[in-house]
Specification:
Layout lengths: L9 H11 L12 E5 L15 H11 L2 E3 L10 H9 L3 H21 L2 E5 L7 H12 L4 E4 L20 E2 L2 H12 L10 H4 L3
Parallel strand pairs: 1-2, 1-3, 3-4, 4-5
């Protein structure tokens, strides 16, 4: 523990601490854990094309990110049972499976270093909302992509997610991640763990 110089003002001491701060490590996204949030139940991209395909490849190959993808999780095997339970109005089975989905997905959000959430315009995404709120409350970098344009992201998010981390396309997000990877967002404390600054 450093001795405190009583002759300096608190502001001077704070300034010295920020000057002494270590430089952020570069290529910090290599091996970083990211949770890929977004619609599954109400996905409108169709069975031939899953919206996750392109981002999954780009995040892995371009940045070396370790991805938590709930769509690729073994729990998806429960979907046919859940679908049948809904058709038969078996609420007890619906609850049991939904509890497992929620527990597993939120555990992955908890383990992630940051979250990328795909929030297409007017697509209901209840689980995604929960994951975004949980990530934000944990002070993780929480990045949103709305493909119709960032101004079409749900307005509620603008109340607690800064506009600079809401993107109107995947390419805009990738450009931002390139900046993160080069250490250009060390002033954002949410990246402190990823940058190795704490």
């Amino acid at each position: 523990m450093q001795n405190i110089d009583e002759t300096k003002t608190l502001e001077e001491m704070l300034e010295e601490l920020s000057v002494e701060r270590a430089a952020p490590k570069r290529d910090c996204l290599l091996g970083a854990r990211c949770y890929l949030s977004g619609p599954i139940e109400n996905d409108v991209t169709g069975s031939e094309h899953n919206w996750r395909d392109g981002p999954r490849i780009a995040l892995r190959d371009r940045f070396g990110i370790a991805l938590f993808d709930p769509f690729a999780d073994p729990k998806q095997q429960w979907v046919p049972i859940l679908t049948r339970a809904r058709k038969e109005r078996n609420h007890a089975v619906m609850r049991e499976i939904a509890k497992r989905f929620v527990r597993k997905d939120l555990a992955m959000v908890d383990r992630a270093d940051f979250v990328i959430a795909y929030v297409p315009y007017k697509v209901p995404t209840t689980g995604t909302h929960h994951e975004i709120i949980m990530s934000n409350d944990a002070k993780k970098p929480t990045l949103l992509v709305c493909p119709e344009g960032k101004e079409f992201a749900p307005l509620w998010y603008y109340g607690f997610i800064p506009p600079e981390v809401i993107f109107g396309s995947w390419e805009e997000l990738y450009d931002y991640l390139e900046e993160v990877n080069k250490g250009q967002h060390a002033d954002n404390d949410r990246w402190a763990f990823t940058y190795g600054l704490v």
